[in-house]
Amino acid sequence: MFTGFAFSADAPMNDPWQGLPNTALCLPEILLQRQGNHYTLSCSCFPQQTAHMTQQIERWLSLLSEIFDDMLQRPGPPGHRTNLPVTHLDPVKDVWLDQVRAIKRDIENQALEKVVLARRIQVRAERKLNPIRLMSTLNCLYPDSVLFATQQDGLTFLAATPEYLLSIKDASISSDAVAGTLPRAADEIRDHQLGLDLLNDPKSQHEHQVVVENIQAVLHEICSEVEPANPARLKRLRVLQHLWTVLKGELKPGIDLFEAAEHLHPTAAVNGMPVQQALSWLQTHEPFCRGWFTGAAGWVNARGDGELAVLIRCALLKGYDAELYAGAGITADSDPDSEYMETELKLSAMLEALEDA
Questions:
Q1: Where does 2-71+88-354 sit in CATH, by number?
Q2: Active-site residue 221, yes or no?
Q3: What ranges make up the beta strands (E) of 91-201?
């Protein structure tokens, strides 16, 4: 079954999220799975539908045909990129920079250690945006990311995220700590130097360590055994690189995927520290509903194995319009203008793909 949920359990899901639920659990009618070279096709229906199995099989075959047609879609050809003028900023740059300064003052007063502050932009395309082509483009640009999409009432939410909230197999759990960001460079020597700069940057190391300690503390609550954290390494993406640590443990008996997610979410990578104080600050000061941005989505099977990915690098599509979201982790050493540029880089990842949608 597939599942997903918003950043906040009590998010009202008003505009622009109207039409998507706060939380969803879905049994797909058609499920095509691949693990290595092994493929599985599962078809599901309600018990009463088995009285008309011939019609049901014809429906499954029709749906499969649609799926195969969609899977064959490719990114738009060169020369057909669409312009994406920004139609709305929330908040505007000066207000966002003032919020960063306010967070830094609260950190200096020891009320907070870190807050992940988000931005939202709206763009309008020259043609109606095609979610299927966009997913194909994201698959080409970000083959190592987790791709997710859900659609209801003409509203599509999708993400190409580099970060797992959790992954569970046979009671073994792992969780990604991803924090600290610098851009990539086309020149190989310059790109290597940027990676070294990130690994040795005190501000980025502190931001990352806050996330590591947050996740480790939660794992100690829900696990009978927790592995020591390894030093941070680089997670290199198309336009960005992050500090990355995978944290692992063995779940206590009776702790399932949903209970583990309840303990882990929201991590310091999308919320801040201390958890409740950072969440309260965002509820008071962040000027929009995050919806599913910085929530999580994934799958769970009958054995209790599953994965949930953190919903970042995402877009909300409706017709010609797209809402994009990005955040930055604000700590005592944060420079407001540098943090703003970090969010611009994060937004550019989805904007590049949207030009082909």
A1: 3.60.120.10
A2: no
A3: 114-124, 146-152, 155-161, 164-169, 172-183
